[in-house]
Amino acid sequence: MAITCCAILTAKTSSPPSGRRSKYTGQSVRALPIRILTVGRKRSPGVQLLVDEYIGKLRYYCSVEDIQTRSNPRNARNVKAQIEDEDMAVVNLIKSDHWVVMMDENGSDIDSKQMADLIGDAGDTGASRLLFCIGGPYGHGRQMRERANVSVKLSSLVLNHQIALVVLMEQLYRAWTILKRQNYHH
């Protein structure tokens, strides 16, 4: 599937003006079902509570599926083998018509309005689902990097995968409120 999303994601050179709106604000946007795929150990109850809260909020805009795969599924002793095992487990859950956003510390640095644009652009790709992937403790493997349609970072700081998940959930909710012109984002 060709990458059709956002020149802003590949060539961001400066911050957008503070008053800039999403190019889709107030327009009808095709709401792709969202799947959030994370690699990691069992979540803390507090994190799961926040994830469930945001899934409930997001369901007003689109369907949301939260999938967690086990970190180091074959108990590999070496980091490279662990990354490859996690990579295979994740890629096996991705279909050819999914539009894949890889969350990565080296990805494009976007703001909340650009996240809203990303969601709007994804709806125009012909994809059946928008998939966000958060990697394990050592990041994503080669297959995932090749499969991803776009790579985005949530912060210049390196985040624990549970914290990254909460930040992603909040930003997805914020993006939808931007698209729908609702009072949440200032």
Question: Radius of gyration, Cα only, in angstroms?
Answer: 16 Å
Strand tally, please? 5
Which descriptor suits the 3D outline? Answer: globular
Instruction: Report on the biggest sheet.
Output: 5 strands, parallel
SS field, number of helical segments: 6
Low-confidence stretches: 1-18
Strand content: 15-25%
Estimated structural class: alpha/beta
- What string gives the helices and strands in order? HEHEHEHEHEH
Helix content: 25-40%
- End-to-end distance: 35 Å
The spatial strand order of the largest sheet comes to: 2-1-4-3-5
Name the average pLDDT: 87
Can you walk me through this structure?
Helix 2 packs parallel to helix 6 and helix 4 crosses helix 6. With 186 residues, this protein is α/β, with parallel strands linked by helices. It is 37% helix and 19% strand.
Describe how the helices and strands are arranged.
Elements: H1 7-10, E1 34-40, H2 45-58, E2 64-70, H3 79-91, E3 98-109, H4 112-123, E4 129-134, H5 142-147, E5 150-153, H6 161-179
Parallel strand pairs: 1-2, 1-4, 3-4, 3-5
Helix pairs in contact: 2-6, 4-6
How would you concisely characterize the structure shown here?
This protein is an alpha/beta fold and 186 residues long.
